[in-house]
Design a protein that fits this description.
heterodimer; A: mainly alpha; three-stranded antiparallel beta sheet; two-stranded antiparallel ribbon; 26 helices; B: alpha+beta; about 35% helix
């Protein structure tokens, strides 16, 4: 079997060799022939650098006129001439392009084109033949110039110089039909330049305006080269510099999209960057805008997922970032649609955090930025600017506008923008939050008997925010505390103050009051007296003392000094046993005489040993120290 | 060592002194809570102890009950005639007065009915 025939230019050429002008002279002619003159003059078909064009004699002009009278002959002649030149190009130009720099290539191109054009002028070609010659000549150049080396040279040229040199080179390339090629190169170079510039200059620069300087840079540094490279006069319009600026802005948005999460983390110092993103998004064309917004949302969500919403970050951090996200994305998109979209994964994740409620509650109550990372919640609560939750559209509102066009179906206006609301709405029920508040206030109210004013103010703020009726339990608690202090004044016992609670309204107290723990208190007498006074003042009611709660101030007088301790009632009761008694007491004795359980007794004794008041003398016996050393 | 107790801040809960139940028979809220129309327990929503029977109610609950003529002034739990034990200082004076007025009006109504019954009974029998 014969091997497959592979079609190649070489093979085809061997069958049908390119015909050149020299083929016209295969037969011996008279040397004085017109054609011989002409052909002789047309040589060389390739002009090496440094060689000169030889001006034709009148004889040759006449010969050309004589030979190329017929139009058909002219066309054929041009074909042959171009073929001859092609042969020479293959021999010389290819190598020349390989070996020389872009600038000399340009010069050579210019020289060659000038040379051939002058020859063509002598040939006195008709218009059709002239056009054919020009086209074919350009076509001859292009394959040799469409090389990676030339492209690289062009890219280099465009990157480095903006001067006339570059312009000239570009012109000469364009003159031999390279304009489309140069355009692509110029466009890709410009793109790359802008991209590099944006990514190196503006990455991480969030606290100063970038947009203006970017625009200026594009107009001054990029646009002139760009316009020089894009020769096609049809496309040059006044708006093209705006198009470039637009492109640069798109790149800036791409950059910002990629660093969105970090910007949100540094929210307070990237306000300017956010407003610029907003500006860029607002001025872009509608299609790219939609795309960019979608990309921004997707990128931010995936950044959040990888950097924030995992087990490694604690709840407070997530809350802080959520607040930052709200602030940031409201600058980027004041309608809140983007925020609504990016907030959803964060909210969904926050829902899984059990300690969210307690952090929120603590955050809302402490306005001190040093102790509270969520102080912004507290200040938002304190600002309390027009909190109007409009869950349903008011149909009579004359300024009503429909939801933004790209909003999700369950988008709620204003719901996302207020971050106290945004965070509390993560919780399945408001009651969860209220319960947590009640618990916290229960502790606060019992501990702080002095600065109740502050607590009341906090409660008022919460009421304004979450509704008056939600805090009924808290109201009762506050009234209990207030009434107790009045009652204490009335009874006027200097030693004993009682906070009298409505037991059903205090979380954690209602269980305690059912317990029947008895403690043999050292102030039992005062307590009984207090109870009697209470019974008189409040007919039909009696008191039940809760020994496990409250605080006692005891002063311990040692031989060398006296010291005050702020302790629990059981601790006070235990230490009272050692009053003016230097004999050691055993654990059992202490437990029996106080009424505490064994475990509670040993805990309490442990406490006093740590304070340096009691000392362990072995066999579970303890004794008060006589001199206090701290 | 000498121990001086300088100040003792204790915590206590208050309770109505009642015999047996824990819940108001009318509103089913604990006595130490408040009736559905009040916001605060205690002084403003006091407990009224029955004198004739051992049933206790929130003042506002029993007032609402006695305001209905169909109650006939009876305890809603045991259907005995309801009379309140009025403790001094418990409940707002006007509400206590209203309670006593209601009790009285029911008593009058009962007495009139008894007189009427006594008068009309022979006719019924005949």
């Amino acid at each position: 079997m014969a091997p497959n025939v592979v079609l190649s230019p070489a093979l085809m050429k061997s069958i049908a060799p390119t015909q050149v002008l020299a083929d016209l002279l295969t037969e011996p002619h008279d040397t004085e022939n017109d054609l011989t003159f002409l052909l002789h003059w047309l040589q060389p078909y390739y002009l090496h650098p440094g060689e000169e064009y030889v001006a034709p004699l009148a004889r040759i002009r006449a010969a050309a006129k004589q030979c190329l009278r017929e139009p058909v002959v002219q066309l054929k002649f041009v074909d042959l001439l171009v073929n001859s030149i092609a042969v020479e190009f293959q021999l010389h130009l290819q190598q020349f392009v390989q070996e020389n720099l872009l600038l000399s290539i340009c010069q050579q191109i210019n020289a060659l084109t000038a040379y051939y054009n002058r020859q063509a002028a002598v040939l006195n070609l008709s218009k059709a033949a002239g056009d054919l010659f020009q086209r074919s000549l350009k076509a001859l150049f292009i394959p040799y110039l469409l090389t990676p080396k030339v492209k690289q040279g062009l890219v280099h040229l465009l990157h480095t110089s903006v001067g006339d040199n570059a312009m000239e080179s570009l012109q000469s390339f364009a003159a031999v039909g390279m304009a489309p090629f140069i355009q692509t190169v110029v466009v890709s170079v410009t793109t790359e330049r802008i991209q590099n510039y944006v990514f190196t200059t503006f990455a991480g620069v969030w606290d100063q305006p970038c947009l203006a300087s970017l625009q200026q840079w594009v107009r001054i540094n990029v646009y002139p080269t760009f316009i020089a490279g894009v020769f096609d006069s049809f496309e040059i319009q006044s708006s093209s510099s705006n198009d470039l600026v637009q492109f640069a802005q798109d790149k800036l948005i791409n950059l910002r999209t990629s660093e969105m999460y970090d910007m949100v983390v540094a929210c307070n110092r990237s306000t300017i960057a956010f407003s610029e993103v907003h500006l860029c998004l607002a001025t872009g064309s509608p299609t790219t805008r939609t795309l960019q917004r979608a990309r921004l949302v997707d990128a931010f969500i995936s950044q959040c997922n990888s950097k924030l919403l995992h087990l490694g970050s604690n709840t407070v951090k997530i809350i802080v970032e959520y607040i930052n996200t709200i602030k940031a994305l409201l600058i980027v998109d004041p309608t809140g649609v983007l925020l609504d979209k990016v907030a959803r994964p964060i909210r969904k994740y926050l829902k899984t955090r059990r300690d969210l409620v307690s952090h929120l509650v603590k955050g809302m109550l402490d306005p001190n930025p040093e102790t509270n990372r969520l102080y912004e919640l507290a200040s938002a609560l304190r600002d309390n600017t027009c909190h109007a939750s409009t869950a349903i559209d008011d149909l009579t509102d004359i300024h009503w506008v429909p939801d933004p066009i790209d909003a999700l179906p369950d988008f709620k206006k204003g719901k996302v923008s207020d971050f106290v609301d945004a965070l509390t709405s993560v919780l399945p029920l408001l009651a969860v939050l209220i319960d947590e508040f009640t618990k916290l206030f229960a502790v606060k109210l019992l501990e702080a008997s002095d600065n109740l004013r502050e607590i009341f103010e906090d409660v008022e703020k919460l009421k304004l925010r979450f509704g008056q009726s939600e805090f009924a339990t808290l109201d009762v608690m506050i009234r209990d505390v207030e009434e107790s202090s009045q009652l204490n004044q009335k009874i006027g016992n200097p030693l004993l103050n009682l906070t009298i609670l409505s037991r059903n309204y205090w979380p954690s107290v209602s269980e305690l009051s059912n317990e029947n723990d008895t403690l043999n208190l050292p102030i039992q007498e005062e307590l009984n007296q207090f109870s009697r006074s209470f019974g008189k003042l409040k007919q039909g009611r009696h008191l039940k003392y809760l020994p496990s709660m409250g605080q006692v101030v005891v002063e311990l007088v040692f031989d060398n000094c006296s010291k005050e301790f702020n302790v629990t009632p059981s601790q006070a009761t235990v230490v009272e046993l050692f009053n003016e008694d230097d004999d050691p007491l055993s654990l059992l004795t202490i437990a029996l005489s106080t009424g505490l359980s064994n475990y509670a007794t040993s805990q309490t004794v442990e406490f006093w040993i740590k304070q340096g008041v009691l000392e362990d003398i072995g066999q579970q016996r303890y004794k008060a120290v006589s001199t206090y050393t701290g | 060592m000498k121990v001086n107790i300088k100040h003792w801040h204790g915590v206590a809960t208050w309770h109505w002194q009642t015999q047996n139940d824990e819940l108001c028979g009318i509103c089913r809220v604990p006595f130490d809570g408040h009736c559905p129309s009040c916001r605060y327990p205690g002084d403003t929503c006091p407990l009224i102890l029955g004198k004739g029977c051992s049933h206790n109610f929130h003042l506002h609950c029993i007032l609402k009950w006695l305001e209905q003529s169909s109650s006939k002034g009876l305890c809603p739990m045991c259907r005995q005639i309801f009379t309140a034990t009025v403790l001094e200082g418990v409940g707002a004076p006007d509400e206590i007065a209203q309670l006593q007025e209601l009790e009285n009006s029911h008593r009058v109504a009962r007495e009139q009915a008894e007189v009427g019954d006594a008068y009309e009974l022979p006719n019924d029998v005949l």
